[in-house]
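For practice. Any example?
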Amino acid sequence: MENSSEVFDRMHAPIAQAFPIRENYQYTREMGLVLSFETDEDALRRVLPECLEIDGPATGFVKVTQHKSSVFGPYTGVYIGAKTCFEGQPGNHIISGIKTSQPGAIAGRELWGMPYQVGNVAMSWVDEILQIEVSRASIPFLTMQVQLTNRSGPISYYGTLRTHVARKIDFENWNAGYALVAVDSTATTEGVESWDAVASLTLGAGTPIDDWSVLPVRRVVGARYETGGQITLPMGRIIHSWP
């Protein structure tokens, strides 16, 4: 039986002790889906840090990735973000996300400072329609229906600047501020099969501090579905910071 100090150490051990710091983390992907939607420019501006510009028309996106294996185990992640630009470089900015794996969500927060929580992702094919429902504590965040139309090329999501906001941790200074973190993820195209798709999307209110409906869905611009592939995720790098 563990004594109290052993239990305390186990409960408070950093995730990095369980998952060693590496130069790169590898993921084997089962499937991936990226859906783009037109949203309100003022609403998008309110959820972006001032250092980021909106890249072209106000466009949000939902990314769904189902990992068959990773150092954090298999899991599904659903992320909401927007097309942005940092100092002239186009990119994809993650605003929030839900993972079905607690180790995956904790690692995302502790290793990269990513804004992820644990939740439920239900996916099923009904006839030719892929139905996806995302929830947390039985609260609906997202509902999506996807139908494949024709074969296509690989998703261009990877290989572009990917950012998120992380709060700096300084327990002696509560005004430590925030950082814009970039993660230069890449993906292989060997063995990947891709399809264009049509889709519908509904964003629920979520929770009071994680409301996905703040980005209204005016119309779905496009969707791309893939199977297979390897994803490489390096450690993040701070490209901007502010109080």
Notes: The helical segments are 4-12, 15-18, 41-47, 102-112.
